[in-house]
Amino acid sequence: MTGFLAFKSVVDPSDCDFLGHMNVSKYFSACSDAVFALQAAMGLTAEDMRSGRRLSFAVVHAESDFLAEVSAGEAIHMESEVTAIGEKSMTFRHALKRSFDDKIVFCTVFKCVLLDLTARRAAVIPKDIVNSAKAWLAKE
Ligand SMILES: CC(C)(COP(=O)(O)OP(=O)(O)OC[C@H]1O[C@@H](n2cnc3c(N)ncnc32)[C@H](O)[C@@H]1OP(=O)(O)O)[C@@H](O)C(=O)NCCC(=O)NCCSC(=O)c1cc(O)c2ccccc2c1O
Which residues form a coiled coil (predicted)? Predict the structure, then answer.
């Protein structure tokens, strides 16, 4: 998978737990950053969320595979794709890769609902967001 470069970092010792590898919380924190970056690229910017349409994707279902450990000092990056576009939902696939060999160490599928941040209910995805999301639709 080669998708939108949504997150890039080097694993910090504080990202790791006493098992000596990056902790699960950091994986999901990276996914959170990735969704913010991708939705901003689609037009759901911080400004639009604060004082514009007040819409943001929110995760309602997730399925994940942890495929290899990563440790402090390793460069990692996240590539994200859109796998499905519904009326009020969009499904994202995030692949966290070890940068030196591009190996996928973690893969997750997030089904997200477009949340109206005022009504706190699902909202129909505006056409401009659907159109820009198509740029990151998975090929297969
Ligand atoms: C989000 C809700 C308010 C939706 O409830 P509502 O009743 O308004 O919506 P519908 O039930 O009509 O569903 C619309 C749409 O979504 C699909 N769907 C809903 N729930 C599920 C589910 N569990 N599994 C699969 N699909 C579901 C439904 O089929 C419809 O799809 P269509 O394609 O047909 O339109 C309500 O569900 C709710 O409040 N849920 C809780 C959400 C939540 O609190 N999540 C917590 C984690 S999210 C999070 O922490 C987070 C952190 C970040 O840092 C982010 C950064 C950037 C983006 C997102 C972030 C983020 O989500």
Answer: none
Encode pLDDT of 72-123 as tens digits: 999 999 999 999 999 999 999 999 999 999 999 999 999 999 999 999 999 9
Which amino acids bring their CB within 6 angstroms of ligand 1? 32, 35-36, 39, 56-61, 86-89, 111, 113, 115, 120-122
Fold annotation for 4-136: Thiol Ester Dehydrase; Chain A (3.10.129)
**Rounded distance from Cα 112 to ligand 1 centre (Å):** 5
Q: Two tokens at 129? A: 């967001």
> What is the 88 CA–ligand 1 centroid distance (Å)?
9
Query: Interface pTM (ipTM) of the complex?
Result: 0.89
- Name the residue at shortest CA distance from atom 22 of ligand 1: 60
Question: pTM surpassing 0.80?
Answer: yes
Q: How many CB atoms lie within 10 A of CB 123?
A: 18
Domain extent listing, the chain = 4-136
